[in-house]
Structure formats: structure tokens, C-alpha cells
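wait is this the right file?? whatever heres the structure
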């Protein structure tokens, strides 16, 4: 997730520039995820590899056989006279052509396509009542949309204190600051959208009360350009626009619902469109409100 940090109740805000966060199953410190920039590079390399392989196959299949032409009856033919096929050869050719035409007219039926394997059912459970969230916090992570690909466990991950601190740049006293807001636990999940154009990381922090989660969200700032978030009245956001459209841009939305503070980071190629982030923030708020 893009790093940033909340203001401590008394000290001035601290929080480094946004940095790449996790990517596909694989390792990097922490061992659960690769940096996001690496994930995008791997995805791009995979597409190039498929393209290159397909091109090679096309060339191999399309190459014609080099066979010398054979002229029937050429031996012994008189100059200026075209040799002709024998009656038996003509009959054989006619029969072959008839058989070929009959075969072409025969309809073919493709074997039935096997139905896709069902997705494994999640055993993660949770419930919400009056803004209080109980059960496994991973249950309240925004569901991955159809066709999306999870980076790491499909249910997401429960975060250790070290991982939470790393999300805030390991700034001094971050766990003490979180504790002053009644921090309980955290969960996160990163996925790539079905079209492969965006990588989304959702992070939830669970606090002791609705007021504590709301205060933490309001004091959570980043050293990036601010943007408005539509559809989520408690949200504020930030954007990083790349210097070139070939580079990765990012957006971060911050808000709370009940006793949970949530942050959504979106990485895309080029300048981000805040409409995508606004939609995700709205859906996450609804999911936390209803519990699915």
C-alpha cells in the first residue's frame, strides 16, 4: 500500500512519500507479497512472452513445404506435346475429389466444454451490528470483482504489527499512536482487476469504537496532492501523477465506517482516474455497513 502516516495527537504529521506495495504470490520482504511495481513488471513480461510464443508458432505453422513439382508422363513425351493423364489416373482423381467434397459437407460437432471449476467457498466469517464489527476482519475486505486475480491468499491476510508499522513507513512510535486510538487488529488484500489495468490494495484497521476509527481516519494524511472522493461522505484522498504516461500512477482513499478505518490504494499505468477510486470507496463503505 502507498505509505503515509497519521498525525500523532500532539506531534506534527509524519509520513514518507508513497512507495510500491505488494504484488503477486511470491516473495519480497515481508515474504507474503512482492512490491507492486514488480508485480506489474511480471504481468507485462508474461504478456510479452505469450505474444512472442504465438508469433513463433504462427511462423512455424505457416511455412510451406518445399517439394519439387512432378509432371505426369514427362518422360518420353514428344517436344511441343503436353502429356495427358491415363484414364485410370483420371478416374482415381475424380473419386478422390468426390470423397473430399463429401467429407467437407459432413458437419462436425465440438465436444461439450467442461464447466469452470467452482471457486472454493471461504470459511472466513464476520458480522456487524450498530457499526461494531465482530469475527474475522478479513471477512469485511471488499470482495474481489469477477475475473480479478488475488495476490496472495484469496481471503486476504491478517497483518502483524510489523506489517502495519511498515505500511506507515516504520515511523517512530506508530504502534503507540495506533494504540492511543484503541487499535485492535488489521487485514489487507491486493488484487489485479480482470482487465489487468489496475492493482487494488484494501487495508482495514479495527479500532475500539466508531469515534476512534473516525478520528484516526480524519488525522490520516499523506504528502501527496489531495483529491475529492465522491460517494463516500467521510472520505478524503490523494493522487500521485506520473511524469510520463508510461509510468505508474497511484491514488489513495481514506475513510471509516463504524469501528473500522479503511484505506484503498489503486495503481494504474499513466494518470489515474479518480472515478475508479470513488467507486471502490463507496462499495467498501457499503460492505462494511451491511457485512455482505
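ok assuming it is, sequence goes like this
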Amino acid at each position: 500500500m502507498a505509505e503515509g502516516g497519521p498525525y500523532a495527537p500532539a506531534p506534527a504529521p509524519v509520513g514518507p512519500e508513497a512507495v510500491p506495495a505488494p504484488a503477486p504470490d511470491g516473495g519480497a520482504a515481508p515474504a507474503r507479497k512482492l512490491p507492486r511495481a514488480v508485480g506489474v513488471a511480471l504481468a507485462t513480461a508474461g504478456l510479452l512472452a505469450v505474444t512472442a510464443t504465438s508469433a513463433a508458432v504462427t511462423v512455424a505453422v505457416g511455412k510451406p513445404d518445399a517439394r519439387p513439382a512432378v509432371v505426369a508422363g514427362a518422360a518420353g513425351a514428344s517436344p511441343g506435346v503436353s502429356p495427358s493423364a491415363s484414364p485410370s489416373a483420371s478416374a482415381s482423381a475424380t473419386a478422390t475429389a468426390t470423397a473430399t467434397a463429401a467429407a467437407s459437407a459432413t458437419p462436425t460437432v465440438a465436444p461439450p466444454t467442461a464447466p469452470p471449476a467452482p471457486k472454493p467457498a471461504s470459511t472466513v466469517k464476520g458480522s456487524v451490528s450498530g457499526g461494531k464489527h465482530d469475527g474475522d476482519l478479513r471477512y469485511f475486505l471488499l470482495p474481489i470483482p469477477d475475473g480479478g486475480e488475488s495476490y496472495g491468499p484469496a481471503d486476504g491476510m491478517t497483518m502483524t504489527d510489523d506489517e502495519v508499522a511498515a505500511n506507515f513507513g516504520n515511523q517512530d512510535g506508530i504502534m503507540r499512536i495506533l494504540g492511543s486510538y484503541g487499535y485492535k487488529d488489521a487485514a489487507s488484500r491486493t488484487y489485479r482487476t480482470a482487465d489487468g489495468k489496475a492493482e487494488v490494495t484494501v487495508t482495514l484497521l479495527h479500532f475500539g469504537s466508531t469515534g476512534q476509527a473516525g478520528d484516526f481516519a480524519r488525522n490520516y494524511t499523506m504528502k501527496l496532492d489531495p483529491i475529492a472522493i465522491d460517494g463516500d461522505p467521510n472520505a478524503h484522498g490523494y493522487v500521485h501523477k506520473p511524469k510520463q504516461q508510461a509510468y505508474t500512477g497511484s491514488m489513495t482513499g481514506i475513510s471509516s465506517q463504524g469501528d473500522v478505518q479503511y484505506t484503498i490504494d489503486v495503481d494504474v499505468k499513466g494518470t489515474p482516474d479518480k472515478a475508479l477510486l470513488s467507486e471502490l470507496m463507496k462499495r467498501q463503505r457499503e460492505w462494511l455497513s451491511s457485512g455482505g
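The chain has six helices and 14 strands. so i think its the right one actually
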